[in-house]
Design goal:
With about 150 residues, the protein is of the alpha/beta class. It is about 45% helix and about 20% strand. The chain contains seven helices and five strands, in the order E-H-E-H-H-E-H-E-H-H-E-H. The chain has a five-stranded parallel sheet with strand order 3-2-1-4-5, sandwiched between helices. Strand 1, helix 1 and strand 2 form a beta-alpha-beta unit. It is globular and about 40 Å long. About 35% of the residues are buried.
């Protein structure tokens, strides 16, 4: 069965469902997890020393939620914040470099023209990954409300 699960999140409700499911699955099979959030590189230089990087701060807040949620479930968890122009590639690269044997991610369920125009990182991971991908659809069950509490 699975021993190391990568859970990709973007902070959305669809991702929250994937985090919830991925951690429940890891607990059930005795796997560890790596939580991942991918940001596109900033197009404007930010003076990190004086202002901080708001994107990095938001990403870290989401990753802290994943880590806290995993800890509350008794699951070993590493977290990674990656920057990449192509988030799907960062997801696949992180899964490979971390030795993950499953990728869990959410789907926003876009259909039709919006799916074509916006693209889908989930669809790209499904298309390009050699690692199995489990896609979670729909809202979370709310089993772990601490994950959804405001930071």
């Amino acid at each position: 069965m699975h021993r190391h699960i990568l859970i990709a999140t973007d902070g959305s409700e669809a991702s929250a469902a994937a985090v919830e499911y991925g951690i429940a699955l890891a607990k059930a099979v005795g796997a560890k997890i790596t939580g991942l959030i991918v940001s596109r590189p900033a197009s404007v230089t930010v003076d990190v020393a004086s202002q901080g990087d708001p994107g990095a701060n938001a990403a870290q807040n989401e990753l802290n939620k994943v880590a806290d949620y995993a800890a509350s479930a008794g699951i070993s968890c590493d977290v990674v914040h990656a920057e990449h122009d192509h988030p799907y590639q960062a997801i696949i690269d992180t899964a490979n470099s971390s030795g993950c044997d499953l990728i869990v991610m959410g789907s926003h369920g876009r259909r039709g023209l919006s799916a074509v125009l916006l693209g889908s990182e989930t669809a790209k991971v499904l298309t390009h990954s050699n690692i199995p991908v489990l896609v979670c659809r729909g809202p979370s069950s709310g089993l772990f409300p601490a994950y959804f509490a405001a930071s």
